[in-house]
Design goal:
The complex is a heterodimer.
Chain A lengths: L2 E5 L2 E4 L4 E8 L8 E6 L5 E7 L8 E3 L7 E6 L4 E6 L8 E10 L5 E6 L3 E6 L1
Chain B lengths: L3 E4 L2 E4 L5 E7 L7 E6 L6 E5 L3 E2 L7 E6 L2 E6 L9 E6 L5 E2 L3 E5 L1
Parallel strand pairs in B: 2-11
Antiparallel strand pairs in B: 1-3, 3-8, 4-5, 4-9, 5-6, 7-8, 9-10, 9-11
The chains are: A mainly beta, B mainly beta.
C-alpha cells in the first residue's frame, strides 16, 4: 500500500524559510516522479512543482509563483522528498500535499496517492 | 500554460439526482484530463483519469467524458457520500487544476 506522510509545516514570518518533508513507502521510490500540490484556505488546488525519478535525471520543474523561491529535492536512501521554501510570502499560506505521478502506456499521468497534508502559515 | 475553467462553481442537488460538472481547457488537451473528489479536511481522491477511465475502487455511478477542450463529470445517482468538491486537472502539460465545483445538499 502506498503511503505518503508529510511533515514540517508550521507558522513562519514573511521572508522566512521552512522545509517540508514527505516520507514515502509502499512503492519503488527512486524512479518515481514526486510532486507537491498546495491548497490555500478555502481555495482550490495549485500545483507547486515536481521532481523526476533517478532514471529521468531527478530534474525539477516549478509553478511560476514559487519559481526561484522553492526547491524540491529527494533523498532516495530515505525514500523522502523535500520542499525547501524560502522568501515566504503570506500568499504561500496553504496546506501542502505531496503526491506521486502514476502513468499509463499512453503517457497519461494522474495523482492517485496523496499524503494527509501539512499546514504552512505565513504571518506578516 | 493551459488554464482550466469549471462550471458551475457550486450546485445544490438531492440524493438520487444525476449531476454533471463541466470543465473547459484554454486549448486542446486531447483526453489528458483527470477528475478528483475532495471532502473537507481530506486529501483529494482520484475518480477519473484519461478523461473517461474510472479509477480503481470508484463506484460506477461516476463517469467522465470529453476530449479536446470540453469535458464533463457525471454522477448518475447522487449518494450522501458524494457531497464534496470536485476538481478537474489537465495532464497534457504541467498540471493545472480547475477552480472546483462544490456539490451541496438541496
Amino acid at each position: 500500500e502506498v503511503q505518503l506522510v508529510e511533515s514540517g509545516g508550521g507558522l513562519v514570518k514573511a521572508g522566512g524559510s521552512l522545509r517540508l518533508a514527505c516520507a514515502a513507502s509502499g512503492f519503488t521510490f527512486h524512479n518515481a516522479w514526486m510532486t507537491w500540490v498546495r491548497q490555500a484556505p478555502g481555495k482550490g488546488l495549485e500545483w507547486v512543482g515536481r521532481i523526476k525519478g533517478e532514471s529521468d535525471g531527478r530534474t525539477t520543474d516549478y509553478a511560476a509563483p514559487v519559481k526561484g523561491r522553492f526547491t524540491i529535492s529527494r533523498d532516495d536512501s530515505k525514500n523522502t522528498v523535500y520542499l525547501q521554501m524560502n522568501s515566504l510570502k503570506t500568499e504561500d499560506t496553504a496546506i501542502y500535499f505531496c503526491s506521486k505521478y502514476d502513468w499509463n502506456d499512453e503517457d497519461h499521468y494522474w495523482f492517485q496517492s496523496w499524503g494527509q497534508g501539512t499546514l504552512v502559515t505565513v504571518s506578516s | 500554460d493551459v488554464q482550466m475553467t469549471q462550471s458551475p462553481s457550486s450546485l445544490s442537488a438531492s440524493v438520487g439526482d444525476s449531476v454533471t460538472i463541466t470543465c473547459r481547457a484554454s486549448r486542446s488537451v486531447s483526453n489528458y484530463l483527470n477528475w478528483y473528489q475532495q471532502k473537507p479536511g481530506k486529501a483529494p481522491k482520484l475518480l477519473i483519469y484519461a478523461a473517461s477511465s474510472v479509477a480503481s475502487g470508484v463506484p460506477s455511478r461516476f463517469s467522465g467524458s470529453g476530449s479536446g477542450t470540453d469535458f464533463s463529470l457525471t454522477i448518475s445517482s447522487l449518494q450522501p457520500e458524494d457531497f464534496a468538491t470536485y476538481f478537474c486537472q489537465q495532464s497534457f502539460t504541467t498540471p493545472a487544476f480547475g477552480q472546483g465545483t462544490k456539490v451541496e445538499i438541496k
